[in-house]
């Protein structure tokens, strides 16, 4: 079941609504409407203003995320979508900035938009002759945008301030991954503090019970997001650090191009390099050596010729290999002009498991190899593109 809907696009960026958005819309409408009704506003005015306030609040969040997106696009980075959900909004930006300075610009754009909205709303409030309800809505919305800007500048992932901290550490150390790890650690620490504060607030005073639960829930969500950032950083590091020669299968056997299919049928299923007059002609894959292909035709009739192979050098990063595997089932590794190994998606999963000291069952590797699909949740192609 789909848990979001596309309701349109902004500057060509798809705008999605998560199902949880409707719950928060109702919650904010109830909060503002009941609060203003208690100030002796007419019921119709209070609830209309409450609903408008809830919509304007999400419009502010949308503009905040749009600030990130437009700066990212100015750097040549694609943006897949903006999603409004339970805790606000999130922009699906395709890849990271190339430099720490550019990363800083993307990160700071959202809070800058929120702060600018705060000033604009206050200016409208004091320049325009507005009725009391409209004036209060503008004042409240200005205050919320200021809070949104300041809250997002808290220096820990997943907040914008964490992205700023990441950019600063990246600039200082020269390592994007170090920046992510430190910003994620700070974010986790702050989120644990938020959970503790929220639980304390819940039990200490019943007047702030809902606020306490909300703060604790935000902290829990933040910890999950910070953990996700750390996992992605570790995967990015592995993709950049590992080389093709460390990942490949090495059991390539050489056979002569003049052998027949009958000769091939007597051999064990394997990956064979086809050699003719000392030159590499191509590869015969295990499925072609199962014995079903027989006859007097040469083995070259079932091989993939050298010009049809996806080939990488032994020093190629695993990131580039993963990108090659988006369009090829296997990648062939060469060293000094000689075919020395083969990499498939199963080899990639196995190598990442070793690098990150994660247990990967042989059955998982075999399934990945057979289906040519990474395990659910392991978005390696997207992660590889993010560090491109």
How would you sum up this structure, described in words?
The chain has 388 residues and is of the alpha/beta class. The protein folds into 3 domains: 4-153, no CATH class; 173-241; 244-386, CBS-domain. The protein is built from 13 helices and 11 strands. The strands form 3 sheets. The chain has a 4-stranded mixed sheet with strand order 1-2-3-4. Helix 9 links the parallel strand 5 and strand 6. Helix 1 (19-37) crosses helix 2 (43-74). The longest helix has 33 residues, at 209-241. It starts with a strand and ends with a helix. 35% of the residues are buried. The model has no long low-confidence stretch (mean pLDDT 90).
Query: Number of folding domains?
Result: 3
Strand count, sense and barrel status of the largest sheet are: 4 strands, mixed
How far apart the termini lie comes to 33 Å
Apparent shape: elongated
Q: How many helices?
A: 13
The count of DSSP E runs of length 2 or more, i.e. the number of strands, is 11
The proportion of strand residues reads 15-25%
Helical content stands at 55-70%
Radius of gyration: 28 Å
Low-confidence residue ranges: none
- What does the average pLDDT come to? 90
Order of helices and strands: EEHHEEHHHHHHEHEEEEHEEHHH
> What order do the strands of the largest sheet run in, or round the barrel if closed?
1-2-3-4
Q: Strand pairing plus helix content: what structural class?
A: alpha/beta
């Amino acid at each position: 079941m789909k848990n979001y809907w596309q309701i349109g696009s902004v500057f060509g960026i798809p705008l999605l609504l998560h199902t949880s958005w409707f719950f928060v819309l109702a919650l904010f409408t109830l909060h503002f409407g009941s609060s203003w009704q208690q100030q002796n506003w007419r019921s119709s005015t209070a609830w209309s203003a409450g609903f408008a306030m809830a919509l304007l609040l999400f419009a502010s969040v949308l503009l905040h995320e749009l600030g990130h997106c437009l700066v990212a696009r100015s750097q040549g980075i694609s943006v897949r979508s903006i999603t409004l959900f339970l805790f606000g909004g999130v922009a699906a930006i395709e890849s990271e900035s190339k430099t720490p300075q550019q990363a800083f610009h993307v990160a700071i754009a959202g809070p800058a938009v929120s702060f600018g909205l705060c000033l604009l709303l206050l200016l409208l409030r004091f320049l325009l002759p507005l009725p009391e309800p409209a004036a209060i809505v503008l004042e409240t919305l200005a205050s919320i945008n200021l809070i949104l800007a300041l809250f997002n500048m808290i220096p820990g992932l997943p907040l914008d301030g964490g992205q700023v901290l990441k950019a600063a550490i990246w600039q200082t150390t020269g390592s994007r991954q170090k920046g992510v790890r430190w910003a994620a650690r700070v974010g986790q620490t702050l989120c644990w503090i938020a959970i503790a504060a929220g639980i304390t607030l819940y039990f200490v005073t019943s007047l702030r019970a809902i606020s306490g639960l909300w703060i604790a829930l935000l902290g829990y969500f933040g910890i999950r997001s910070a953990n996700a950032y750390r996992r992605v950083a570790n995967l990015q590091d592995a993709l950049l650090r590992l080389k093709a020669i460390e990942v490949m299968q090495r059991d390539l056997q050489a056979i002569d191009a003049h052998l027949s299919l009958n000769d091939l049928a007597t051999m064990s299923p394997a990956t064979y390099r086809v050699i003719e007059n000392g030159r590499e002609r191509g590869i015969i894959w295990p499925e072609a050596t199962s014995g079903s292909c027989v006859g007097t035709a040469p083995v070259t009739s079932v091989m993939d010729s050298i010009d049809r192979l996806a080939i990488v050098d032994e020093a190629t990063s695993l990131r580039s290999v993963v990108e090659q595997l988006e369009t090829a089932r296997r990648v062939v590794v060469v060293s000094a002009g000689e075919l020395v190994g083969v990499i498939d998606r199963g080899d990639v999963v196995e190598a990442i498991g070793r690098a990150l000291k994660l247990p990967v069952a042989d059955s998982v590797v075999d399934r990945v190899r057979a289906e040519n699909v990474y395990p659910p949740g392991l978005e390696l192609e997207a992660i590889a593109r993010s560090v491109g």
